[in-house]
Amino acid sequence: MSDVNARSMIVDILGGIAPEGDFATLSGDEDLREVLNLDSMDFMNFIVALHERTGIDIPEADYPKLRTLDGAIAYLAR
Amino acid sequence: MSGSAPVTYREACRQALRDALLSDSKTFLMGEDIGRYGGCYAVTKGLIDEFGEERVRDTPLSESAYVGAGIGAALVGMRPIVEIMTVNFSLLALDQIVNNAATIPHMSGGQFAVPLVIRIATGGGRRVAAQHSHSLEGWYAHIPGLRILAPAVLEDARYMLAAALADPNPVLIFEHVMLYNIEGALDPAVTGVDIDHAKVRRQGSDVSLIAYGNGLIKALAAAETLAGDGISAEVIDLRVLRPLDTVTILASVAKTRRCVIVDEGWKSGSLSAEIGMRIAEEGFFDLDAPLRRVCGREVPMPYAAHLEDAALPQPADIAAAARGLVRPA
Amino acid sequence: MPALGADMEAGTLVEWLIKPGDKVKRGDVVAVVETQKGAIEVETFNEGIVSELVVPIGTKVPVGSLIARIGAPGEIAPERPVAAVPQPVPQPRPTPLPAAPPRPGRADVRITPAARRRASELGIDPATLSGTGVDGAVSIADVEAAARRPAAPTAPAAPLRRIGFNAAEMRKAIATAMGRSKREIPHYYLSQTIDLGAALAWLTAFNDAQPVPNRLLPAVILLKATALALREVPQLNGTYVDGEFRPGPGIHIGWAISLRGGGLVAPAILDADMRPLTELMAMMRDLVQRARAGGLRSSELGSATVTITSLGDRGAETVFGIIYPPQVALIGFGGIAVRPWVVDGRVEPRPLVTVSLAGDHRASDGHVGGLLLNAIERLLQEPEKL
C-alpha cells in the first residue's frame, strides 16, 4: 500500500474514533494516544479497524510500532 | 365383472347394488322412484327389470314410513337398502333413524341388530336450491350407533356397500350428487374396501388438506395448484365420518404441522369443528400454524349458479387457505 | 418517563420510534429521550398495542410522567388518558385502534406450539426471535433458522445517534450526583497494589492465539475478577435506600466510560459475573461505542448495582472514587505500571495495578472492603479461571 493511501486510511479510521482530532497538524512522530487522547479501548479499535480494512494480522507485540502515524504507515507498507 | 373399462361413479354404485342383490336373497332395495323411474339420480336404473318389484320397491312419498319399514325388516333378519333422494328429505325420517335405528341394538342389550343400509344423496352444485342441496351428513356423524360413510372415489362407491351390509349396525352412505358422473377405471385387483379408516389420497409435506365427498375432489385440485407454487399438500380422504379415524388425521398433521379442513357443511357446529377440536386436543404440540377451515357459507343454498358457486368451498379457496399457512404474507 | 439514573429529574422527548397501532414487546426501543447524559433510547417493559403517544416531541416532562399508552393485547383504548400529564400539552384524540388479533394463551411471545417445543429442545429462548409465521408467530422455521445462526458476540450495533448530547448539561448531572454522594455518603477508602504479572502473561498468550478483533484488554480481566469477588462479598453489591442496604438482584457492573466531549457515563453490564471474558469484551466495546455516540438504552442506565472505573494504560496510579448513589461501592483501577516488587525475597520489575475501593460506611465497614480487595487480588493470580 502506498504511503499516501495508508495515511488517508489511517486518518479516516482515527477520525471515526476521535472526531474532534486535528489531523491537518498531526505530525508523523507524535504518539497518537497522547495527541488524540486515545484510551486503550480506542487504540484497540484502531488496530481492529486497520486489520479489518487491510487484512493484515497485527500481533499484539507489534502494537507499539503503530503508536505514531509514521510508524503505522511503515508497518502497513511492509 | 367390472374389468378395467371406464365406469362412472353412478355405475359403480349400481354394480354394488346388483352384487348385493345377487349375492344375498335377503337383500332388497326400497325408496321413492327407484324402480320404474330408475332413481332420482338414475343409480337403480334397470335393476327392477332384472330383480322385479319385490326386491326393487317403489315407496309412497313418506320417508318416515319406508325408513321405519326398513328398520323393521332389518330387525327380522332382512338386509334392506333404503334410498333417500336427498339429505334434506332425510329429516322426515330423522325420528326413525336417530330414535330407532341408532338405539335399538343398544336398548335391547344387543339382542336386536339393525343391519340396515340407507343411501342418501347429498351436497350442492346442481342448481336445485335450498331444499335439495345441503350437506347435513355432519349431523348424522353426531349420533352414536350409526356408521357414516362418504365414498368419494370409484373404489369406495363400488365396494363400501358390501362392507356396510356386513355391519350389524345401521350404516348411512352419503353419495355426493356432483360425483355421480365422475368416470374412471376400477382396479380389478381390488375386490373390497374397509369402512374404518381415512385414506391419504395424495402425499405431501407442507400442509394437510382434510376433506371428504366432493370436497376431496376440490382438495385434490387445490393440491395440484399448490404444487405449482412449490407447496406440497397432503390430502386426506376421511371416507368414514363416524367413527372418525383420528389416528390418520393426527399422523398427517404431525408430519405437515399445518392443516386446512374442507367441509361443504356450514361451519358452525360442523364436522370440521369436530376434526379441528380433536387436532387441538391431541395434536396441539405438533401445530406450527393455526388451524384453518374452508366451509360452506352460512346461508340456505342459493339457486343462482354464481351464488351457489360462491356459497360452496372451491379449490381456489382451499389453495388460498393453505398458502396462507405455509407462506404467510 | 423512566428515571435513567438516580439523579435524573426530567427528560425531553426527542423522537418517537413507535406509532399508535404498533405492536411492542418488552425490550423494544420506543423513544429517544434527551437527558443530562445525552440521548438515551427508552425501552418498554410492557407488551401490547400502542394506543396513544401522550407526550409530543420536544416536550420536557418530569420522571414518572405518562408518555405513552400501551394497551394489553385486545384491550380497547380508553377514551382519554387516565393519568394527567403534569404540564399542559395538546391532547391529541386517541387514534382508533386496529382490532388487535386474538392471542392464544399468555401474550409474552406469539409462537406456535410446535415451535415452542422445538425451541425448548434446541435451548433457544423464543423471546429473542422474530416470527415469520402466520400472524407474525414464531414458527419452527424461525427457531431452526436461529439455531443455524452462529451466536453473535454482540448485539447488532444500534443505529448511532449523535443528537442530544450537551456537555454543560452532563456537567450539571455529574455535579448533582457527586454532590449528593459527598453530602450523604460517608465514604471510606481502601487500596491495595496487585501484581498483574500472571494475568498479563496469560492475556498475552491468549491474545497471541486470537485474531485481532477477538483480543482482550486488561480491563476486561479486572472487571471479571471484580465481579467474581463481589459474589464472595455481596455486602458491597447493591444499593442503600431508605436507611437500609438492599442487596443487588445480580452483579450488574456500571462501567465508567469517559466521553470525548467531557463527562462520563456508567452503563450497566448485567450479570457480569456470569459472562465469559470474550463476551464481556464485546459488550464493553459495544457500550463504549454507544455511550460516545449517544445510543445507550434505558435498561443500561439506573440498573447498575456497583461501579468500576479503570483509568487505562495512560491513567494515574490510584483513583479515589466517589460512589454513584444509591450504590454502596466504587472500585477503581489505576494505570498498570512496571515497578519494583518483591518476589521470593528478591526485587523484580513487575506490572502492578493499584485497586481502590470507595465504600459507603452506612452499608459496610472497612473489614468487608478489605475482603473484597483480597478476593480481587487472589482471583487475578489465576487468570485462566476467570
Report on the architecture of this protein.
The complex is a heterotrimer of chains A (78), B (329) and C (386). Chain A is built from four helices and no strands. With 78 residues, chain A is mostly helical. In chain A, α1 packs across α3 and α1 packs across α4. The termini of chain A are close together. Chain B contains 13 helices and 14 strands. In chain B, the strands form three sheets. Chain B has a seven-stranded mixed sheet, with helices on both faces. In chain B, strands 9-11-10-13-14 form a five-stranded mixed sheet, sandwiched between helices. A two-stranded antiparallel sheet of chain B has the order 1-8. In chain B, α8 links the parallel β6 and β7. The radius of gyration of chain B is 20 Å and the shape is globular. Chain B starts with 5 loop residues before the first strand and ends with a helix. The model of chain B has no long low-confidence stretch (mean pLDDT 96). Chain C has 386 residues and is α+β, with helices and mostly antiparallel strands. Chain C starts with 9 loop residues before the first strand and ends in a 6-residue tail after the last helix. In chain C, α1 runs parallel beside α2. Helix content of chain C is 25%, strand content 25%. The chains are: A mainly alpha (78), B alpha/beta (329), C alpha+beta (386). The interface between A and C is medium-sized, with 19 and 20 residues.
Key terms:
heterotrimer; A: 78 residues; mainly alpha; globular; B: 329 residues; alpha/beta; 7-stranded mixed β-sheet; 5-stranded mixed β-sheet; 13 helices; 38% helix
